[in-house]
Design a protein that fits this description.
- This protein is α/β, with parallel strands linked by helices and about 475 residues long.
- Helices cover about 30% and strands about 25% of the residues.
- It contains 15 helices and 18 strands.
- It has a 6-stranded parallel β-sheet with strand order 5-4-1-8-9-10, with helices on both faces. Strands 16-15-14-17-18 form a 5-stranded parallel β-sheet, sandwiched between helices.
Length: about 475
């Protein structure tokens, strides 16, 4: 399996030192240099990330015949990356950061304005056509615009992941996955950003997918995870699996690289996005096996909730912050949040404060880890989570005689005792439409692999939106019951 990465490569240099005084001739701190670290940036970082995990990696880039270019070739080759360098007029771009006490004091850019690279050799075009997967890591300096490269990428049978740049060209048609962060998606789509960040990501993602004729667009949202827009109008929202306060620069490269590797291994796009969110989160946390690279690539570091490209730091939603309404609860105080009065009061409080009300629904007959994953992912999307619970009669109509195994009062108490659930309301109707019409949540969440949700039309009446969150394979009440009966 060979991963081919195409894009602009930079030489990143970090100069670390200490500041103890101000210059006598100017109001500027004096940095006493202690150490210097050099590494490939841009598409070069993506290549290092893939190679560090044992994959065969080829990098198609443009490098000038200067000292910086020679150093890039040395670093990449030492990491096991096969370099296919197109001629680059002028100088190799460099980004030099002066750092003290973990902070960047100044960044110096070298290399001048972008210059179009020279002609692509036949070996490069053949490499692209025979790739297992292709990642285009565009940093806006011209490699992604190269006509011959674009034609070869479009002709390739390999899955293509395209990490775009606002100053770069659009992806070629029929790319499997495009990975802008939220700020890039807004700029590229022209979306003004009205409404919540989630709704903006959904609108922009669908707009760009249609405009670019892409199979899917995933909009990364820093600590809020990623929003995957495919053919269905209902997006898949993948939360960040762990909390981290690490430096997020380079997280977007980790995300795009992991997605390309997953697709090369035959994963579905949704599976590739889940793997990419996990990889970017571990990268930020410094647990991805390449800690020496983490946080060293700051190119066009944009995105809400993050200093770099990609999902960024933090955990799902507002982990560690007080919700805008209600209270942080612990297991055992659930009964005070059960019933229509409590659910309605909570929704009103959150809406009055300008917060986001999230609702989800289901039978929750035997509570298992799959339910918990869905509930936590749903809670991360707003300021409170209200569970709309099927009554015993409703479950019986849906599941047949013998269900539910657990009475609705006990199911309500168990759900309300979870710290990710803020209120529970029981409904007896065949569908949750009546209770949704009354609660008017901003976001309606379901866990699973639905193409569409029947509640979408209802929720859109008041400007709400529906989303899908991933579910855990192999976890279901029906399977649990069947397994218990076999024993």
């Amino acid at each position: 399996m060979r991963i081919v990465i195409v894009g602009d490569t930079l030489l990143d240099r970090d100069v670390h030192g200490t500041v103890t005084r101000i210059a006598p001739d100017a109001p500027a701190p004096v940095l006493d240099e202690e150490t210097v670290h050099e590494r490939p940036g841009g598409a070069g970082l993506a290549a290092l990330l893939a190679a560090a995990h044992g994959h065969e990696v080829a990098l198609v880039t443009a490098i000038a015949t200067d000292a910086a270019g020679a150093r890039l070739n040395e670093l990449l080759t030492a990491a096991g990356v096969e370099v296919y360098a197109l001629p680059l007029p002028g100088s190799t771009p460099e980004k030099i950061r002066l750092r003290a006490a973990g902070q960047v004091l100044l960044r110096l850019d070298r290399g001048g304005p972008p210059q179009p690279p020279g002609e692509a050799p036949a070996a490069v075009l053949e490499l692209l056509r025979d790739a297992t997967a292709i990642l285009v890591s565009d940093y806006g300096r011209g490699v992604a615009r190269h006509p011959e490269l674009r034609a070869a990428i479009e002709e390739s049978k390999a899955p293509v992941v395209w990490d775009p740049h606002p100053n770069g060209p659009p992806p070629v048609p029929n790319v499997r996955l495009v990975t802008p962060n939220e700020a890039e998606a807004r700029r590229l789509s022209g979306d003004a950003g009205h409404g919540s960040g989630l709704s903006t990501a959904q609108r922009a993602g669908h707009t760009l997918r249609q405009r670019w004729q892409a199979g899917a667009v995933v909009v990364t949202r820093g600590a809020e995870g990623a929003v995957l827009c495919q053919g269905s109008p209902t997006p898949l929202v993948v939360p960040v699996p762990e909390t981290s306060g690490g430096d997020t620069c380079g997280a977007g490269d980790a995300f795009a690289t992991a997605a390309a590797v997953a697709l090369a291994n035959g994963a579905l796009v949704s599976e590739a996005v889940a793997a990419a969110v996990d990889a970017a989160s571990r990268y930020v946390a410094g647990t991805g096996g390449i800690a020496e690279l983490k946080g060293q690539n700051g190119s066009h570091a944009v995105g809400p909730g993050a200093n770099g490209r990609g999902p960024g730091a933090g955990g799902p939603g507002r982990t560690g912050q007080e919700p805008s309404a209600g209270r942080q609860r612990t297991v055992g105080d659930g009964p005070g949040r059960i019933g229509a009065d409590e659910a309605g009061r909570l929704a009103a409080e959150v809406h009055a404060r300008g917060g986001t009300v999230v609702a989800t629904g289901g039978c929750f007959d035997l509570l298992h880890t799959g339910h918990l994953a869905t509930l936590r992912a749903a809670r991360a999307l707003g300021d409170c989570l209200i569970v709309c619970l099927n009554s015993d009669d409703s479950v019986r109509r849906l599941k047949g005689e013998g269900r539910p195994l657990t009475h609705q009062d006990d199911r309500s108490r168990l759900l309300a005792a979870l710290d990710c659930v803020d209120a529970v309301v029981v409904f007896d109707e065949p569908t949750p439409e009546p209770v949704l019409t009354w609660l008017r949540p901003d976001v309606w969440v379901k866990g699973g692999d639905y193409d569409t949700l029947p509640e979408t039309e209802v929720v859109q009446r008041w400007g709400g939106q529906t989303v899908i969150v991933p579910y855990l394979d192999g976890r279901s009440t029906t399977k649990t019951i069947a397994e218990a009966r076999r024993r």
